[in-house]
Design a protein that fits this description.
The protein is an alpha/beta fold and about 475 residues long. Helix content is about 30%, strand content about 20%. The longest helix has 16 residues. The radius of gyration is 23 Å and the shape is globular.
Length: about 475
Amino acid sequence: MTAATQGAGMELDGKTVVVVGLAQTGIAVARFCARRGARVVVSDGKPAAQLAAQMQQLEGVPVRFELGGMDLATYLAAELIVMSPGVPPLPETRAARAQGIPVIAEIELAYRFLHPAAALLAITGTNGKSTTTALTGALCERSGRPTFCGGNLGNMPLIDAVDHPANVAGGLVVAEIAAFMLENCTTFRGRTGVLTNITEDHLDRFGTLENYAHMKGRIWDLQLPTDLAIGNAADPWVMREMAGIPSRPSTFDSRPGAVLAPGARGAVISPDRKELVLRLDPDAGVERYPTDDLVIVGNHNLENAMGAYLAARDVGVSIDAVRAGARAYRPLPHRMELVGELAAAQGNIYYYDDSKGTNVASVAASVRGFPRPLVLIAGGVDKGGSYAPMLEALDGVCKGIVLIGKAAPLIREAAAAHGATYPVVDATDMHDAVRRATDLCSGGGGGDAVVLSPACASYDMFQNFGHRGRVFREAVSAVGATRLDLG
């Protein structure tokens, strides 16, 4: 594979293209292919009655729908099959591939149409990839160069970058990449590839953590020696995937006492935790960035920032633009977002919405190194596994845990086994949880935080993590706090 593949495109005019999956990505791919003259068939196992809204988005676009099941004959008649990221391998796609029909991911299709002189920054990982992507995008935008930021982030699939102003020489294309998206790639490569961390997730799809890690590591497998690979030095699975890669390795390390070895590329945190220290090239000096530039908090967000800074600097974003972008950046919704402040006699109480913290590893990363004492609101639908990593990360910073949802007994039992000395109390709903957490903060000291970071899925009490976060914000207002996320 060579860099010449990027920008070469594919001849779609007159070809039969099957788009598998009618969600946001499938809709975007269907439009893209139809605009280029392809005969588009959209295939989805769900019946039309469940996909009415999606079908409406393709009104007027010359596509044919095959819904409610997969037709093998359609797949075998295709000249190209494009997979949406949420769709697992199918018997029909295996059969098509066996017949020599190309089966590719949406990001692979997009990559082939990107300008060869546009810089693609590809970011993946189990946790932190959305924040790292959004922050990297914000830094790149401050450079003044045309910038696209999307992929698995928000409602901007990577295919939308092809017709975006950033798809030019000197443009910057920043993309969050999920493991699913790397399954059907043969040429996709980022000029810069970031791997934030690897923890247990999606094992129902990949079977083992080793298989999952290998899929994440594909972010680097097709890179060239001139490309940059950025990985988390504290994560053994990341380091395992980094071994033997063809590109230039660069690491970030948030562990206390971590230093940049002589001649090493990467980033660490200063001993006083007040600066991020970067070295871009082995023969260059270090660059220093105040952590006060960032409004995002927690050790995991310092890791996200180091990955973003290294990526942006490597594609030529200036130091001043990096600092300006960092100061202007605000967290994505429901990702450790400061949403309220309550004036109290003994010191203000701060309210953080981290409803996106739906697994134990994510919560552990969020609360480790938290800058103030906190009361955690946790619980929901248990996802299996141990709560021990979360409880270990809470040691020394937690003033109490307020439990909601079906997993409450499991978390309470885990806290007792861990030897937690702080209160662990139950709440009937989110409003009750915020009241109880506020009371625990009010017990003394001041400057405490109430953090919603549930470590569980939301479906027992809420529609999704976003709904859970919105109810939390309503509850924050109900206790008299000033909302900081409004207008």
